[in-house]
Amino acid sequence: MVIVGGGIAGLALATRLGNSMGRSGKLDITLVDKGFSHVWKPMLHCFAAGTARNENDRITFVSHAAGHGFRFCYGEISHLDRAARRLTLAPLREQDEDEVILEERHVDYDALIFAIGSRANDFGTPGVKDHCIFLDNVVEANNFNERFRHAVLQAYGRGTPLDIAIVGGGATGVQLAAELHKALDIGSLYNFTPTTPEMRITLLEAGPRILPSFPEKVSEEARQQLEALKISVRTGAMVSGVDEKGFILKDGSRVDAQFRVWAAGVKAPDVTREMDGLECSRGGQLVVKPNLQTTLDDRIFAVGDCSFIAESPLPPTAQVARQEAHHLAKYLPQWIVNQTPVPPFKFNNKGAIVALGNYNGWGAFADGKTFGGGALHGLSARLGHTALYRQHQFELYGVPRGTIACLTDWLDRFVRPSVRMD
After folding, report:
1. What is the pTM of this model?
2. For residues 348 and 148, what is the distance between their CA atoms, to the nearest angstrom?
């Protein structure tokens, strides 16, 4: 069995199947990923702002695979041959050079699961790819943080403002805006200069409100919280183009910014279009049956953000990805051994949580009722957001090592600065 993608769904599935069948030798499991480590994607905005140190939150694929009964193969898929049941991994080249480090390789499979996640969707908007920063993976988050730290230090030295514009009023864009403000708040404790430089953040949302997947009450309270932090929130602001200075809006106005972040929309990685004729949705997601098998090949499954259940579409969230991985981990062994059909996946919606740094947070249950954001300034919701990450750690590590990971992270935050400015 081959699992492509080591995100939330892919690593959870590899870990569970490795523990149940890989260790005993009943199943040969290979995880393929174009990176060497896993991070929890809902924390990327913290890594970008420097308010969390991802070296403490990474799970190295090689060591994790060795301890959980599966193998790790480094590489990026470039082609799928369904008739031969073979994946082709692209050659790895030295960055900015033509020297080949790893030649093209092939990986054969009997069962294949795609869990390659998603990316922000530029919707073909001119200039986005050339002039915007994306935060779809830890490499992009780290690159943003590197540039952000240098810009903050320059702003301290020159006494000039720092302009940041973020497109997308979903959870990623909203949380990033608050986290960047938090980073500057903490950075002011370093006392570089008597006064903290001004950071002007603008959040652009094409729709009528931010956090559209939450109740309207949460959207309005979140907007008020951001504006209290002097973050400009502009709804109904559709971007028609981007240049080296900023965003051009549909009404002809401009929003100029030194940092231009694109966090709008969701689409599958472009490689899904090259998967030997497998059916794809408009967003490039692999179309699957209710049991997560692709519509044109029963040996291939897709889970998480890269899959699309045509009969009952689900939101591209970590909660959905995790539950789909658990579903396959439960039923794939019998499908492999006895060809027992995999039953349809049933999503158990437990609600959603959004946390705005240390400032506020909200949670929405599946019935639309909310918690947090009250007298405790959203403490319950912010703790709930942290608890989801700890749950993820315990699931992958187990209780003993998960406890150690939590304690290590807590001690690190206690003894070291909470924002990365070095």
Report:
1. 0.88
2. 39
